[in-house]
Structure formats: C-alpha cells, structure tokens
Amino acid sequence: MEFPQLGQHCSAKTCNKLDFLPMKCDACNAILCKDHIKYDEHQCSSAYRKNVQIPVCPLCNQHVPYEYRDQSPDRAVSAHIDRDCQSRKREKVYANKCSVASCKQREAIPVNCEKCSKTFCLRHRFPDDHRCQGFQHQSPAKQKKQEDDDYMFAKALQESERQELQRIRRNQTTSAAATANTSASSTDNKSCCVQ
C-alpha cells in the first residue's frame, strides 16, 4: 500500500529520490534528500547569500567587507583591488641597478663587488669588467682601521689553531698512556692466572 501524499521528491537533477523526511535548502528553497542538502552537492546558485565568510584579498591579505548582502565574494574582492588595495605600493622585483653609468640593466638579486662594494649586473660583476678602483675612494683612516681589523682577526685565528693543536696532542698522549696501562694490566692478569 502506497502513500503518494507522504514525502517529496529530491529536486537534484540526477536524483529525484522519494524522501519521507525531505529537507529544504535555506538558500535556494529547493526540496532535497539527505544526500544533496549541502550547497556543493546540489550546485546551489544562491549559496553565496548564506556564505558568511569574509573574503581575503590575495594581494594585500586584508579582509574585504561586502557592500551589500547578495554580492558575490569575487565581485567584492575585484572592487577592493580596483579601489583601495594597498598592494600597488609593492617593491619592484628588479630593484638592483647596475652601477656602471652606461648600463641600465637591473637584477633581482644584488651582485656586489668584493673590492668596491658597489652593485652590478651579471655582465659587469667581475672587477675587470667594471674597471674596479677598489677601496681607493675610502679615507686613509678607514683603510688603516680595516688593515688593523684584518691583522687582529688573523692573529686570533692563529692563536685558536695553536690551542686546538695542543688539545689534540694532549688527547693523543692521554689515550696512548691509557692504552699502555691497559696492556700492562692484562699481561699481569695472564701471568697470575697461568701459575
């Protein structure tokens, strides 16, 4: 015995199942079964009205408020980018200009000369290619300080190497003495056991 007045058919195009406990979509008001009640499962065209998530701008990572409730998130973000997005003030990727006067090349990564500390493009990166003058533009006091710093660094490095060698020699002599003591005690044990 059938009860045709009980239940309703699912309004999903591929389903049309008779459901005795149908559910109504709160966005599009369609009658659906339990398998198709989620917005994505029945491709709800009005889901964005009930979606209360605030979109985030992909350029400046700021929250973008809706102008009106029925507006789609894509349009809100698009309007934000057109009007008041702060990403327009981004740094340029190729900001490292070559220091050679006639060259207009820019690089993404700074290429600094070790002698003159100026930034150059890949074509002029070697000292011979950009007619490097070295540290001649520095004052004599600054050059003297650099030489003194280099001397102190070399002296400290030499002292640490000397201390390391002494530590290694001490470890070798203590390990050799310990080996000698171990072998002497083992021969004493053998002689006492043989008797």
Automatic annotation (TrEMBL):
<dbReference type="GO" id="GO:0043161">
    <property type="term" value="P:proteasome-mediated ubiquitin-dependent protein catabolic process"/>
</dbReference>
<dbReference type="InterPro" id="IPR000058">
    <property type="entry name" value="Znf_AN1"/>
</dbReference>
<feature type="domain" description="AN1-type">
    <location>
        <begin position="4"/>
        <end position="52"/>
    </location>
</feature>
<dbReference type="InterPro" id="IPR057357">
    <property type="entry name" value="Znf-C2H2_ZFAND2A/B"/>
</dbReference>
<dbReference type="GO" id="GO:0045047">
    <property type="term" value="P:protein targeting to ER"/>
</dbReference>
<protein>
    <recommendedName>
        <fullName>AN1-type domain-containing protein</fullName>
    </recommendedName>
</protein>
<feature type="region of interest" description="Disordered">
    <location>
        <begin position="155"/>
        <end position="195"/>
    </location>
</feature>
<dbReference type="Pfam" id="PF25403">
    <property type="entry name" value="zf-C2H2_ZFAND2"/>
</dbReference>
<dbReference type="InterPro" id="IPR035896">
    <property type="entry name" value="AN1-like_Znf"/>
</dbReference>
<keyword id="KW-0677">Repeat</keyword>
<dbReference type="GO" id="GO:0008270">
    <property type="term" value="F:zinc ion binding"/>
</dbReference>
<keyword id="KW-0862">Zinc</keyword>
<dbReference type="GO" id="GO:0005783">
    <property type="term" value="C:endoplasmic reticulum"/>
</dbReference>
<dbReference type="Pfam" id="PF01428">
    <property type="entry name" value="zf-AN1"/>
</dbReference>
<keyword id="KW-0479">Metal-binding</keyword>
<feature type="compositionally biased region" description="Basic and acidic residues">
    <location>
        <begin position="158"/>
        <end position="167"/>
    </location>
</feature>
<keyword id="KW-0863">Zinc-finger</keyword>
<feature type="compositionally biased region" description="Low complexity">
    <location>
        <begin position="173"/>
        <end position="187"/>
    </location>
</feature>
<feature type="domain" description="AN1-type">
    <location>
        <begin position="92"/>
        <end position="140"/>
    </location>
</feature>
